[in-house]
Amino acid sequence: MSQQKITSKALPVNRVLIDILILTFTGAVAILLRAYLRIPLNIPGHHGLEVIALLLIGRKITKIPFGSSISTLTAASFIFLPFLGFKDPFLPFIYLAMGFVIDLVYNNVKRVQGNFILLGFLGGFAYMMIPLSRFMIYVVSGYPYESFLKQGFVLPFFMHFIFGAMGGMMAHGIVNYTRKITA
């Protein structure tokens, strides 16, 4: 007796659906962690470690070319939930820009995908989109951001880059170690 297939060719439950679920999950967890780990360290960009690590873990383990955009779209959607306490009206769009930058570089610079240092630079540059976008919003609209008022303009850029880079390197290490022990 032959076994009957569970899925049909018309609607296969394939790797793409699993990848989309993984990316959606990583985006949701990234923003939920950022919302609930509100430790007043007064260090700009300190959430870059977990946010970029999760976004790049999702990007590295899935095959979808625009994977980070899916994760950041989920994160941006969660930012609109009022009980999470986000006050920045531009933050969802900044997250979408971050996902776009990650996908653009990850897809077009193939050396980034397997290089610890380059993935760190990608993570740092992507997370630096937050102060860069805020600076552009400040210049155009005059909307004052607290991080610029407290720490000036240089420290937020530098610290976002450092924490984002650490998150990128952490993502590379976690994915490679996990692949190594499961192989």
Radius of gyration: 18 Å
Q: What global shape is seen? A: globular
Catalogue the unreliable spans.
Answer: none
The figure for the number of domains is 1
Annotate the secondary structure layout.
Elements: H1 15-36, H2 48-61, H3 67-79, H4 91-108, H5 116-127, H6 129-141, H7 146-151, H8 154-182
Helix pairs in contact: 1-2, 1-3, 2-3, 2-5, 2-8, 3-4, 4-5, 4-6, 5-8
Description:
With 183 residues, the protein is mostly helical. It has one domain. Helix content is 69%, strand content 0%. It has eight helices and no strands. It has helices at 15-36, 48-61, 67-79, 91-108, 116-127, 129-141, 146-151, 154-182. The two termini are 34 Å apart.
Summarize this structure as a short list of keywords or feature phrases.
183 residues
What's this model, at a glance?
This protein is mostly helical and 183 residues long.
